[in-house]
Amino acid sequence: MARTPVPAGRGRFETFVGGYEDPQPGVAYPGVLRRPGTEGWRTVIGVVAGFVFYLSVMSALPGLVIGVAWLVAGRGQAYQQFARDAAAYLNPAGMLAMNLAIGCLIPVSWLMVAGIHRTAPRWLASVGPRIRWRYLAVCAIVAVVVLNAMQVVTWLIDGTAVHLVPQQGFWGFLVVILTTTWVQATGEEYFFRGYLMQALGSLTRTPWFGVITSALIFAVMHGSQNVPLFLNRLAFGLVAALLVWLTGGLEAGIAGHVVNNVFAYVWAGLTVGIAASRTVTETSWLGSLIGVGGYAVYALAAWGIARAMRIGTTTTVPAAVPGRA
Predict the structure, then answer these.
(1) Can you give the residue ranges of every domain in the chain?
(2) Residues 266-325: pLDDT tens digits?
(3) What is the phi/psi pair of residue 168, to 5°?
(4) b/e 133-164 (16+ beta carbons within 10 angstroms → b)
(5) Which of 282, 299, 184, 183 is CA-nearest to residue 233?
(6) pTM summary value
(7) Residue 299: C-alpha distances to residues 29, 133, 200, 208, 222 (Å)
């Protein structure tokens, strides 16, 4: 019996499911979900459903993770006190719970793209459509150097006397930081710079609507914050979104976000304490400017690396994947 050919770049599972439609060639990342005659209701339903799914996970998963952690490591402590300490990041269970919950934004984004927009989830990774691992690895190395250098510059300008003294329980926190922070940061990139930017970008011909609106939502979702801190997060979102647009994928954003968060928590655990750093709701104008400046330097470097590596920035017709099922 003759075998049914698999369309180029599409696995047999996707062919079996049916209904998936690849973007047209030559489309920039924010426009991947835009098609001739795109219905705006898909974006509205997708964005609303995405937040509903995410908030549902956030209301259930942290409590479950903290409960399991208490059974394993509670050591006779009352559950109520253990849970309060976890919520305040006074023990690693709270960080573990939040990292895993935010990481659920990855499957939520996949579900919205596949179920609402009828597009293969791999198009969220890049215009490839895949994660371009070599580029991501190079960006991660650059991010370690640039972002930590800017942290040192911040300490020097502020005149901060840095005393590296691990906080109580630091090594437990370190395990959680190194094993799950990448999940949390990647989840935010997939949802805010990935799904939201593509979904909102499908509503207009210009990519700017998706870029600006996704950055604004990202800043608002960080909760209570003074004006310099809000503008810092808004600028971070804008720079990160531009980086995705200019490089055609999430790799540089994921690398920078993961490195930034990992080292921010490590430095906090060695200095002021992770619980104290998490409750920060304000910053100075100078601190905000330095933070944004550091990430902008990284973004420029990542963009230059993409050009040097000749990373694709628009969609192409994907080649068939041999043996893919």
Answers:
(1) 17-308
(2) 999 998 889 888 777 777 788 788 888 888 999 999 999 999 999 999 998 654 444 443
(3) -60, 130
(4) eebbebbbebbbebbbebbeebeeeeeeeeee
(5) 282
(6) 0.87
(7) 17, 17, 23, 18, 22
